[in-house]
Every structure is written in C-alpha cells, then in structure tokens.
Design a protein that fits this description.
With 285 residues, the chain is an alpha/beta fold. 42% of the residues lie in helices and 15% in strands. Bound molecules: NADPH dihydro-nicotinamide-adenine-dinucleotide phosphate.
C-alpha cells in the first residue's frame, strides 16, 4: 500500500485564498489585519521562519511589521516594544520568534504579550482557555494539523491517537485538541518505556520529536494517518521530518511530507489567527 499524501501546500493555498478574501473585507471596512513580528538574534532558521511569515502576510493582504534586535539585546527593550504594540489598536497580532537568546526569560516575554493579540497561542491564559474548551488562540502548528486531519475526513471520535513529544508549542496542545475532538490520546516522550508498543496501535500518529527520520515504517500501524511535524536539516542541507517517509509511506494510509506538509500549515494558521483577531477588534469597534 502507498499512503495518500496530505499536501500542506495545496491545503494552505486554499485556506490562504479564503483568508485573503476575509482580510480584504476587513480592510475595506477600515480594519486591515496587522501582525507584528519580533526577531531577536541571528539564528538563521528563525530568520527564515520570520521571512516566510512576513511573505505569507503580504500575499494575504495582511500588514506586517518586523522588529529585529541583536543577539545581545536588552530584554527591557524587547518588553518595551511589546508594551507599545499591545497599546497600538492598529496591531492585531504580536509574535516573538522563538528561541530567544539565553539571557531572556522566555516565559516573561510570552506573558507580556496581550492575550487578545497572542496569535501564537503561547500565553498561559490562552493555554488555560484551550484546556477548558473556551475561546482561545490555538497554537498554529497543532491547529494546522487538525485542519489537515479534517481535510481528509479522518474520523477522530474514538480514534487512538498517539503524539510523540510533549512540548508546550506542539505536543501538549496537540494532545488537548485531539482529546477535545474525541480521540483517545497517548502522549509519548523520551521517558516512554516501549514507544513502538504505543505507535503501532495508533490510528493517528503525530511525530513532534526533533530527530530526523526517527519514526520508521515498522513503528506504524497499517493504514494509520501519520503526521510529521518535524523539521530537521540533514548534513547535505536538505530538510527532512521526524518520520522516515520512504518506509512509513508503504504502511500508512495517509502521510504528510516534509517539506510541504505541516510547515506551510503552521504559517496559514498564524494568518488565520491574525485575521480572527482583527475581526474581533473590528466587532468591538
Ligand atoms: P522539543 O525539543 O521542545 O520537544 C521534543 C519532544 O520529543 C520532547 O517532548 C521529547 O521528550 C520528545 N523526544 C525526544 N526524544 C525522544 C525519544 N527518543 N522518544 C520519544 N520522545 C522523544 O521540540 P518541539 O516540540 O518544539 O519540535 C519538535 C519538532 O517539530 C522539531 O523538529 C521542530 O523543528 C519541529 N517544529 C515544526 C514546526 C512546523 O511548523 N512544522 C513548528 C514547531 C516545531 P522529553 O519531553 O522527555 O524531552
């Protein structure tokens, strides 16, 4: 069997077209959605992510503001900028690209962003709201995964879902979303005793580990939906996921590629959260 490929680029193009239409409508009524992005330091991967986010905004008719700080920037300067952007009614989303340099208190920076503008969904209040099923900004990567599952009509209620990884930005919110959708969720991590036991019974397997080609075909249940969140750079410069695509595709029922899978969907959901924030602001006004 060769798995169906879940094409993140094609799904993103469709959703971004819809978002561009919404952004144009809001702009025509006087509220152009606007995302402010803060980048601290010279991490080259972060710079690429920020460039892609800014380009995604521009294509969708969303205004973007970019603020760059050097690696040795004073945290107070960045916090001051966040306070300024929080108070600016023309800004609807604020994103601080992670990771921050070591001398920053990442948690304090994320908590400084107004909950109403936290389009990454990393603020503790948004995380709490999400866990309680209240209206919240949902972190973009797991939200993008949910859209991908929806796009192929994956049955979620009663499904066995296994998430490898328990980070705040991917694994944990992913587990919360799948649980809310009715799946029975197992979260695996580096301390999991028999990982293969869990992965082999998953109807839906999400890999968010950060280790190239870690999940091999023999770890996949035949017919499972395999979602590869990982983005790893190989020594030859090529990108690969946390799943060994070549062996897994022969076993899975559906699978996401890397690149062209979850990555573009993450940016799409960021644009969606920014447009949603702008439309909330417009409603309030
Ligand atoms: P983290 O490093 O924060 O988390 C990795 C998780 O994997 C941890 O929970 C860790 O367990 C677990 N893990 C590590 N080794 C093993 C192992 N041998 N067996 C089982 N679990 C293991 O990574 P992120 O969640 O931030 O990112 C994961 C991947 O997703 C990365 O490749 C990253 O680049 C990518 N990513 C992609 C995005 C996209 O847009 N497509 C967005 C964000 C991330 P423990 O907690 O015990 O340490």
């Amino acid at each position: 069997m060769t798995a169906r490929i879940i094409d993140g680029n094609a799904l993103s193009a469709k959703l971004r077209g819809e978002l561009a239409a919404k952004a144009a409508e809001l702009t025509a009524k006087g509220t152009q959605p606007c995302l402010a992005v803060i980048l601290v330091g010279g991490d080259s991967a972060s710079a690429v992510y920020v460039r892609n986010k800014v380009a995604g905004c521009e294509k969708a008719g969303i205004k973007s503001l970019k603020f760059e700080y050097p690696q040795d920037a004073a945290p107070a300067d960045v916090l001051g900028k966040i306070a300024e952007l929080n108070a600016d009614p023309s800004v609807h989303g604020i994103l601080v690209q992670l990771p921050l340099p070591k001398h920053f208190d990442e948690k304090a920076v994320l908590e400084a962003i107004s909950v109403e503008k936290d389009v990454d969904g990393f603020h503790a209040e948004n995380v709490g709201r999400l866990s309680q099923g209240q209206e919240a900004f949902i972190p973009c990567t797991p939200n993008g995964v949910m859209e991908m599952l929806k796009s192929i009509e994956t049955p979620l209620r009663g499904a066995e879902a296994v998430v490898i990884g328990r980070s705040n930005i991917v694994g944990k919110p992913m587990a919360m979303l799948l649980t809310a959708a009715g799946a029975t969720v197992t979260v695996c991590h580096s301390g999991t005793r028999d990982l293969n036991f869990h992965t082999r019974r998953a109807d839906i397997l999400v890999a968010a580990i950060g280790k190239p080609k870690f999940v091999t075909g023999d770890m996949v249940r035949p017919g499972a939906v395999v979602i590869d969140v990982g983005i790893n750079r190989l020594p030859d410069g090529k990108l690969c996921g946390d799943v060994d695509f070549d062996s897994a595709k022969d076993v899975a029922g559906a699978i996401t590629p890397v690149p062209g899978g979850v990555g573009p969907m993450t940016i799409t959901m960021l644009l969606a959260n920014t447009v949603e924030s702008a439309s909330r602001a417009a409603r309030k006004a």
